[in-house]
Fold this sequence. Notes:
A: four-stranded antiparallel beta sheet, about 0% helix, B: mainly beta, six-stranded mixed beta sheet, globular
Amino acid sequence: DADVTQTPRNRITKTGKRIMLECSQTKGHDRMYWYRQDPGLGLRLIYYSFDVKDINKGEISDGYSVSRQAQAKFSLSLESAIPNQTALYFCATSEDEDQPQHFGDGTRLSIL
Amino acid sequence: AQKVTQAQTEISVVEKEDVTLDCVYETRDTTYYLFWYKQPPSGELVFLIRRNSFDEQNEISGRYSWNFQKSTSSFNFTITASQVVDSAVYFCALSEGNSGYSTLTFGKGTMLLVSP
């Protein structure tokens, strides 16, 4: 089984819909992250959490919200999806800032 | 603020050629960590290497090698005798290490195409 699991893997939806992307991990890491990837722009940080009670905005948090339900679960929500949020979304975990991040397989989200 | 620049957007080589992917970083911290990740066409992100700012030794792992030079703020990645399976997007990333609250900053990636 994967250490970092993202669901769904693919999602197509319409403008204005509320969408939740889920991430769960079995690595026991406190730190979890949500990124989006757009062609030519690399990975940009949306939100991050260093423990269950700690939530922080990243570089591009507008239009997104998150919930850290447990150490192992970190969800990303798009309250009212818009087409420019079409992207590949990654969840990641890490043990500490000096350790590599471990990524899920990504969620490909298309908003029509 | 930390920054990572991968100036090469795309590189095309023929199998068995050597290729170097450049990474230049900016940071004000004396303690920091550098990473390389590989993203094959299947889309997942695979961790390749981590290097801390106090260790300037070059590293070799099979056909892969990394050259870390603090004097030029560079952490370049060389693939020797490239293979088609090396075709991927490669990301360099930086984490500053003094606060305990640092996050990763990624470069925009270099797409490597290795043709037979």
